[in-house]
Design brief:
single chain, 5 helices, Immunoglobulin-like, 14-stranded mixed sheet, about 5% helix, twelve-stranded antiparallel sheet
Length: about 725
């Protein structure tokens, strides 16, 4: 075998060998046959297998080790590896934690430690009658291939994440070696904190009977397998994914292509893992269920600056045997970390019931000792003043600097977040700076809500509706809400809803660049068989108001249409945008008789109605229902249209108003403090200057050059108007 020096260490560089660490000690030690270190005085290299299997001893790693082919813990003898801060290990081949011969192997990765297993698979409890223990204690482990846990007969495998991240690049199996057939062993994955990232699983085979993924304060993500919410729920229903050992509540969501599983503790404690201001703090929680529903629950509450309640110098009992107590005031007078714990008596009054935790005494019961929770307290107060700045006037296309001011006496850095309403096309130079620049898009934007109760309506359109109080053809105007799709009778009382807007300021022939309606959910409604809708405009250059002609289905429909399938049962208060309806608005404003003060009607039909050969026949299809807010106000159906004026048209004298919001918080106070300001944006700098009432020095022409006096300004602006247009606002005189 050829040897080479790396620093002061001998590393194997040719051939392939199984190199065993003798006794326990740091990775870099080399053994002379009697001392601890790598047997034979040779450190494993890229072709070798590093083995940790000497009489229950542990090797520690706190630097970047040379790459190895494989690592194995628990081969013929038990042993393990602990990777500490600064330690890093990469293996290119298949690895085992718990290998054979009734042995136990363990791998612990502490905070700051990193392990990469780049082979086709990694096994934890990978041999007959062996035990494998993988613990992520704040560090990071990346497994490029599959992760098989308790994959052989009689084996046992446990993966525990107490913080940090475990990422699995391929499949996972608990009690299986192929995510299909059972090994006859059971596996446990405990996500106590931190993150478990799974590429995919094979449901239901990845978690075999008896094996469990238990989620506590950590998170499980399935990143590359589509929506796995149903599969995760099936596992939960079978007791294969649990929350806090089965006593908590799982939350399973699919957002942005990732299925995420989290858990809520059955006691839902507050505060936990957050930072609060120093001073008085109220600890609060939800009590566990009593063994007898008719009984109360008694609790002991512990609080202090150390996590061990037996440390009487740092931990005190702030409540003893409190009956149905769910909150206790405490004081956190100084910056630091505080710990608290709630122990529960669930078998009755501890003054009458024996609680001695004695398994040998059949007449005694155990106190349920609670988790230790913690929070930080800080004297760093949140910003005392946040001012977005004075309201401003500018013009489209100009980079306009913000002028916010913040008063903050704290020491931590501030975080800024700017936003705009409307947001379409608005560009910030940076949204996370105190005073970014902002540019408003060329073109015009109109945002219009429902003017009053005469501007929205709904018509009952199923001739077979079983509701005698809502007959076919009945129109309701001024309702408290707009029921999209159907209103009652299990989805068979079909409805078309319609909204109207006028004085939009959109000239005939304008080029519509985007358009949408935003509804606010008033009631989540019901998911049913049919959820497809079609949005249409009324083919009229000036629609008749509903109060004068309530009929909706009798109105002419636009040639253009837009399909819509909104998600079922959205949360109350949610804002929901329709798909882009540019084509509908464009068709209306292109009509020869359209003018900017005319009225527009938009209608949303259930497709099941439009598909009927004869609408008067009706049908039995059950249509989805969502209730939207109706009438005027901030929660009304809001139309947003962006458009460009036709070439050769004069600039508009009016402004589009944008509301800008800055939200500011610091490291220790995550709840942001917000302030808003408005910006009136004009089409030209000339109109902006006129609106601002500024003197000659602030009036600029289209090229940004300063005008010397107001007379020059009048001469400059005249060529931009066609002969048959007149200025709609006066030009100031000197």
């Amino acid at each position: 075998m050829v040897m080479t020096f790396v620093g002061l260490f001998l590393v194997s560089v040719s051939g392939a060998a199984d190199i065993r660490y003798r006794l326990s000690g740091p990775w870099e030690d080399l053994s002379d046959g009697t001392t601890n270190g790598w047997d034979g005085g040779v450190m494993p290299g890229s072709a070798d297998t590093a083995r940790f299997n000497w009489g229950d001893n542990t090797v520690t790693l706190d630097y970047v080790a040379p790459n190895v082919s494989r690592f194995q813990m628990g081969v013929n003898e038990s042993g393990g590896l602990e990777v500490n801060a600064g330690g890093s290990l990469t293996a290119t081949g298949n690895c085992k934690v718990g290998n054979n011969n009734l042995c136990t192997g363990w791998l612990t990765i502490n905070e700051g430690g990193v392990v990469n297993a780049n082979g086709g698979w990694t096994q934890v409890g990978g041999g007959d009658n062996t035990t494998g223990i993988l613990t992520i204690d704040g560090g990071e482990m990346s497994i490029n291939g599959h992760l098989w846990i308790a994959s052989k007969t009689g084996s046992a495998g446990t993966v525990t994440i107490n913080g940090g991240t475990l990422t699995v690049g391929q499949n996972i199996g608990l009690g299986t070696i192929d995510a299909a057939s059972a090994s006859g062993a059971v596996a446990f994955v405990n996500v106590n904190a931190g993150v478990l990232n799974l590429h995919h699983w094979n449901a239901p085979g990845s978690i075999q009977d008896g094996s469990v993924i238990d989620v506590r304060y950590g998170t499980v993500n399935i990143t590359n397998d589509g929506d796995q919410s149903d599969e995760a729920q099936d596992y939960a229903d079978d007791g294969k994914i649990t929350a806090f050992g089965g006593s908590g509540t799982l939350t399973i969501v699919h957002v942005n292509g990732v299925t995420t599983i989290t858990a809520t503790h059955p006691m839902d404690p507050w505060p936990r893992e957050i930072t609060v201001p120093v001073g008085d703090v109220e600890l609060s929680w939800t009590n566990l269920d009593p063994n007898d529903p008719a009984d109360s629950v008694w609790v002991d509450v512990w609080f202090g600056t150390a996590p061990d309640k037996l440390d009487t110098l740092q931990y005190t009992q702030v409540k003893t045997e409190g009956e149905n107590t769910i909150a206790v005031p405490v004081s956190a007078p100084a910056t630091g970390t505080y710990y608290w714990q709630v122990d529960s008596y669930t078998y009755g009054d501890p003054a009458l019931v024996v609680y001695d935790n004695n398994d040998l005494n059949p007449d005694s019961f155990g106190v349920i000792e609670g988790d230790v929770w913690s929070f930080d307290a800080t004297s760093d107060a949140p910003p005392s003043v946040v001012d977005a700045g004075a309201d401003m006037i500018t013009w489209f296309g100009k980079l306009t600097p913000m002028a916010a001011s913040v008063v903050d006496d704290g020491e931590s850095d501030l975080t800024y977040a700017w936003s705009s309403d409307p947001a379409d096309g608005v560009l910030f130079s940076a949204t996370d700076e105190e005073d970014p620049g902002v540019t408003f898009p060329p073109g015009r934007t109109v945002v219009k809500g429902i003017q009053n109760n005469n501007y929205d309506a709904e018509e009952h359109i199923n001739a077979l509706s079983p509701d005698p109080d809502k007959p076919y053809g009945m129109v309701e105007i001024g309702s408290n809400d707009l029921e999209l799709g159907s209103e009652s009778q299990n989805g068979r009382d079909w409805q078309v809803i319609a909204v109207q807007y006028d004085t939009l300021g959109i000239p005939q022939g304008a080029n519509i660049t985007s358009a949408k309606i935003t509804f606010q959910v008033d009631n989540s409604g019901s998911a049913r068989d049919e959820n497809n809708f079609t949005i249409l405009a009324e083919a009229a250059d000036d629609a008749v108001l509903f109060s004068n002609d309530p009929n909706i289905t009798g109105r002419a429909r636009s040639a253009a249409s837009v399909g819509w399938a909104p998600a079922a049962t959205p949360a109350v208060g949610t804002k929901i945008d329709t798909p882009d309806i540019t084509a509908l608005i464009q068709e209306v404003v292109d009509q020869a008789g359209w003018s900017e003060d005319n009225r527009l009607t938009l209608m949303i039909y259930p497709d099941v109605y439009l598909d009927l050969p004869d609408p008067s026949t009706g049908g039995d299809t059950q249509v989805q229902e969502i209730e939207f807010e109706a009438g005027a106000g901030d929660d009304s159906a809001t139309l947003t249209v962006m458009f460009d004026i036709p070439e050769g048209s004069p600039p508009a004298s009016g402004a589009t108003t944008y509301t800008l919001t800055v939200a500011v918080h610091d490291e220790f106070n995550p709840t942001p403090i917000e302030d808003t300001m408005t910006v009136d944006v004009y089409e030209t700098p000339c109109y902006a200057a006129i609106a601002a009432g500024e003197g000659a020095d602030y009036i600029a022409d289209y090229n940004g050059d300063c005008i010397i006096n107001l007379a020059d300004f009048a001469a400059m602006i005249a060529p931009y108007w066609a002969d048959d247009y007149a200025l709609t606002v006066p030009i100031p005189t000197p």
